[in-house]
Amino acid sequence: MFATATLLTFITASTLLALAPGPDNLFVLTQSALHGRKAGLMITLGLCSGLVGHTLAVALGIAVLFQASALAFTALKLVGASYLLYLAWQAFRASGTRLALKSTPPLKLSRLYRRGIVMNLTNPKVSIFFLAFLPQFADPQRGNIAIQLTLLGGLFILTTVVIFGAIALLAGQLGHWFGQSPRCQQWLNRSAAMVFVALAVKLACAER
User: Fold this and answer.
1) DSSP class of residue 106?
2) Which of 24, 25, 52, 26 is CA-nearest to residue 155?
3) pLDDT of 29-81, one tens digit each?
4) Where are the domains of the chain?
5) How many whole angstroms separate alpha carbon 182 and alpha carbon 187?
6) CB contact at 8 A, 58 and 129
């Protein structure tokens, strides 16, 4: 369905986009450093599950709503920003309690997975990005456009899983090393809180 040159260009572009510093890979990095490699991998799967929703939104034309409606765009981004501030508050509070309470149970993997989904789906800019990015590689002469967009979204998600998974593994190992020191653990928690606040502000100030 796709020309080889088109696929290579798309995969290269997707890889560079996944590597470029952004809200999602920073989210994976901070969560992996705080909660470990498994947590980072579950966050990655959650984020990529959210990308499935954005892909379908583009293929079905729903993403146009966020591009056309200022109200829908603003409402969704404020929900996302509020959620990030909530995570920032949790991380900041953990800086004073997590070290003292060794028996504190780790976050459930299912909760981390849902956290990734919410983080991704509440960012309307992802839908608008997909709406601008995916159609550039679709060709009406090569078949159904909706199917092409869905396949392209799938390739983008696969690339993202690989890149974000590598980030999760690396950050999780670094977090484990830092976690041996109470002072470093406290620094990690506070740094994560600052990252979440910065991401929340960036999302709240985003424009279509």
Assistant:
1) P
2) 52
3) 888 888 888 999 999 999 999 999 999 888 888 767 666 777 777 877 787 78
4) 37-204
5) 9
6) no
